[in-house]
Amino acid sequence: MPARGSQRRRDEIVRLATTSGLASVEELSQTFGVTASTIRRDLALLTTEGRLARTYGGAMALTAHPETSLRQRIGEAFAAKRAIARAAAAEVGPGETVLLDAGSTVGALAHELRSVPGLTAVTVGLTALQELSDAEGITVHCLGGTLRPLSQGFVGPLAEAALERVTFDRAFLGADGVTAEGLCEADLAQTRLKELMARRATDVYVLAHGAKLGRRPFHAWARLEPGWTLITDASAERAKVERLRGAGIAVVVAGADEGIESSA
């Protein structure tokens, strides 16, 4: 029986690493109610069997989590993204200069910003660019660079160089996953650009609906700095929200009907 129980646990570890991305020894130990040394032995065996790849402090699936396209994501969690966008837009005042990341949630924010008078919007995302291209009274700049077809956003040295020419009142970033350790994305070019964007802004916001909190679907990371603000929606698990607040991240929870709850 114990051997069968161990095998079931190892099978479940592989499943979790495949569906959720990175798995840490600490999290797996808590999930299965066993010691960290037991989890490390499990991971060593699974690595030997070729079922997982070891990482520092944990493991990841050998098959990368597939990155979905912006077109696939744009209809997901529509109400949540709209609530987040409205809460984010409420932070922006007339005449400000804002920096907008790529992604569907930031694109929803761009739609909400169309009526902000005297706004200057700088973006790396085609969605935000399309939303603001015909907005009256708004100045729109695109950083340019190399287009990533899946995310419909620009990355690379040209985008990075353009960032050195301007500063921003606020930067609004997206992410594929958010934990207290950072923002998770599909490749390092995206995470490097996010870090550079954040350095150029007075205030930094991360827009992510509840399903993205605690997720580690990929293996490229940008730091999530204390003092930044996460805007999420009412579907976010309270434990995950509190973990972020404990790391010094201000969290705004925007509900489609419930209003907005803000807390540092």
Quick take:
This is DeoR family transcriptional regulator. GO terms for molecular function: DNA-binding transcription factor activity. The chain has 264 residues and is α/β, with parallel strands linked by helices.
Protein described:
By secondary structure, the chain is of the alpha/beta class. The chain has 2 domains: 2-61, Winged helix-like DNA-binding domain superfamily/Winged helix DNA-binding domain (Arc Repressor Mutant, subunit A, Orthogonal Bundle), CATH 1.10.10; 70-263, 3-Layer(aba) Sandwich (Rossmann fold), CATH 3.40.50.1360. The chain is built from 10 helices and 16 strands. The strands form 4 sheets. It has an 8-stranded mixed beta sheet, sandwiched between helices.
